[in-house]
Amino acid sequence: MKIKLLLFFTFLSYTSIFAQEVSNQEIKEIIKEYRSLHRGPYLKIEWFCDDGTKRDSKDPCPDKIGGIQHASYKPLTIRLQEKNHLFFGDILAYTDKGDFWDYPNQHSRLKQYQLNNYLESVDNGWIMEKAQYYRGSVQSEDEQEWGIDFYNWLLLSNTRIEEDYYLIRQSLKDIPHSGDNQDAQQIRSLSKVIAEENSKFMDARTKIHGQPDKSDIQLVENFMEEHKSDLSEKQQKDLDSLTKAMKNFYAPTDLSYFAEKAKNFPQGSFLRDQLAHLGKQDKDSITQQALIEEAASLMCEIRTELPEVQSTSDQLTALDVSLKLEEIIFKTAPEWQPKTLLEQLDKIYALSLASASAGNVEWWEWNQIDHLLQPQNLNEITIEELNKKLSLARSQVEWSTSMVKAIYGDVVEKYQGFEPKATGFIDDRVRSSLALRLGETVSELGKFIREQSKLSNQVLDLDSQSSFRGLNPGYAFGKLIVVENNSEDLEVSPENIYVFQKPPSDLKPVAGIATVSEGNLVSHVQLLARNLGIPNAVLSPQNLEDLKAYDGQKIFYAVSDQGTIIMKEEDDMSSEEKELFSKDKERDQDKISVPVEKINLDQKTVLNLTEVDAKSSGKICGPKAANLGQLKSMFPENVVNGVVVPFGIFRAHMNLPMPKQQATYWEYLKETFAQAEEMRESNIPESEVQNCQLDRLSLLREAIKNMELKPEFVSNLERGFQNNFGTNIGGTPVFLRSDTNMEDLGSFTGAGLNLTVFNVREREKILNGIKDVWASPYTERSFKWRQQYLNNPENVFPSILIIPSVDVEYSGVMITKGINNNNPDDLTVAFSRGAGGAVDGQSAEAWLLDLDGEDLLLSPARETFYNRLPANGGLDKKSTAFNTSILNKTNKEKIKALAKNIRKTIPEKTEASNTGPYDVELGFLNNKLWLFQIRPFVENKNAKSSTYLQSISPEVDTKKSINLQSTI
Q1: How much is the mean pLDDT over the chain?
Q2: Among positive and negative, which fits the CA dihedral 140, 145, 148, 149?
Q3: Digit-coded pLDDT (tens) for 158-168
Q4: According to a count of CB atoms within 10 Å of the terminal CB, is the N or C end of the chain lower?
């Protein structure tokens, strides 16, 4: 029966995938089938001869030709490679090195090889469950030889080393080349497997994964003794293997290894001398501090000098030595227990240096931070200076974590569709890296500073409380929802508090948020949260894991202006906290109204951008066009020409009869909101009222998208294109930007709520895009934000700003104040490569620019893919490495000059009270600065002035000095 089923499935698979991608559901079935087969993904054992021919397993290649023996792939395995770019059971021997490096696909095949190794280690062989015992399928000596050849080929290129140092170094842990064992990986894998089979082992597993050290050996032995009567034969065997792996891993370091490796490098070279020095030391007399600091220094030397090492074989040896040094630091770090504050800072610096040398951050990134993290030769340090050290150290942990996600996220996401256990791979890489040890040490410093400052987070009963960092002040009460995986398609509720790995770019209203991946300070999500007083914080991956225990429970959540965080269960709320959400306390009092009294709907022809200025905002058009028109008059060389479609043209089209309705579009819209008010007066639940509104708005939105544009408007628009762009409609690629009267109202920002049509060129697409932009205020997301914060959300009038596309190399946002330090004299900028940078939540390169002092890198970019704007319209996806910064020195100087000019001239040209801060969108092409938007930067004053929020973050004397010899 089983054979019949297999034949049927094989037939079904062949017919369905021969000409197309295999679906995730089919791949799940393939994996299930492979697991049950003795040969798994393989067909049979064959000889692969050096002349390209193949022979039967019993017919070896002639000696004069030569060859190797291993398994061949099933046709279905090959189809997955060809149609889905999926590589299961990859055999390295005889694999083309370039194909395996897989440069055109962001090294997907290599990364899949690593991910497959992980899945096999944590899931009983995964697809190789039976095939791992298929004798002769893989020859270890051939795999080793191929691995050495692969690295000798790969390391020939210094460009590869510089662009992909982290990936190359990580791959050494998986690709056979040196015969080294993988005890650390085995420890994590076995402890996970044992805990899944025996829940009583979960506490031990949590300790081994979260805070591993050599005491875990005794922990496991105690468990075995205590539960020996309950253990199955397999569990006993796995526990024995785990104990053995731990004893091997935590065995005293044999430093003579380094003396032996030193002989590989040229006589008199610094690296040879330093390795020889370490190798001669007595492992029993060297202190943990000295060992870690020397190992970190050597790792730094290897990364710095690697491109200059003469032979690829020596480069490979150097990288293997670096891995050995990392292993020593990882297992020695818990034994170094600093006694003083100075020693704690020394440990943080050593671990940060080692982590950077391991490739967890790019070398240029580390060079921005290195001198700031180095302990200084002082007797005392202020709390303010100590907090800066903490922030810098914490950034190294966050940047390292984001590096793992950026490099492996694409492959893990691909596998998640058919293998959920792939999710654990990124966590495994983080926990096996020095970022784990650095994070532990930074948390200890954070705890010390909070004690000295009499500040403390109170986040339920979680460990590592100092890993939480507040972004936006506010408070919320609601159900806690922990979202571990992809959040883009998640349906959120305004009543809930969400914890995300990364928030969706089109987030609908929520009560509160916390994220592992901050994205960047000036994304639309962050700006909305800051503007609307939604509490928002950053936390560590371990914090997210710990919060799963409270998923679905109602909690109180608050973030102060100073970044203090409180999260507690409903039963633990104080009377003051409960009063914040009492029914008689109308939070709706903060709602605002869209001003419509000054709107001019008589302007029914398009305008040139030069015909509008700041005074036009809310009258003829929205603030995007009005303010850009103002900028055009001030900076004519840095602002493109543009066409403005005013409110009046939209309103004129809304007066047309709506198909299938006995009303115009406008009358239907008014009736939608009138009907909602009648339902509320009849005490119908608000959820039903909102659903009714959304249903009607959905019909309206689709009708607007399909309406006929007035011929006189199209003719008028044609003239606008000729006047401003020198072409007919369709002759130049343009952006269509929604520009409503609800944006930038002083206490409400509509950042990112409505549609922008990117780089569209075809005439029909431009005309349809205009209707799409008009329809976008009636999407569910836009409506829900407006409904929650505006008194009259029906009075939204969209104008449209049409500007030609500028194919900028990088773009982003400038805020004319320091967001992190609240300094009005500083600048906060965030940039991503390509067009549309930093606004949609990308992990952008962010800087704090000091007009008179040193610029500070707040976060590096961690987005592999970005958009460029081809002349024929649409978007081209490009990819990048992270080994160079986005902004150069010239760019930063131009941004500073622009900010200085804007601060001076905007109040002069508009209103004296319009003093900022400002939110400016801009980009660079060939180092020329282009301006795309300026708007007020709006923060929630109520959240900042809340008596309760002030009470949980008392004033701190930041100038208080602390002796560096203080006990930690």
Answers
A1: 88
A2: negative
A3: 999 999 999 99
A4: N
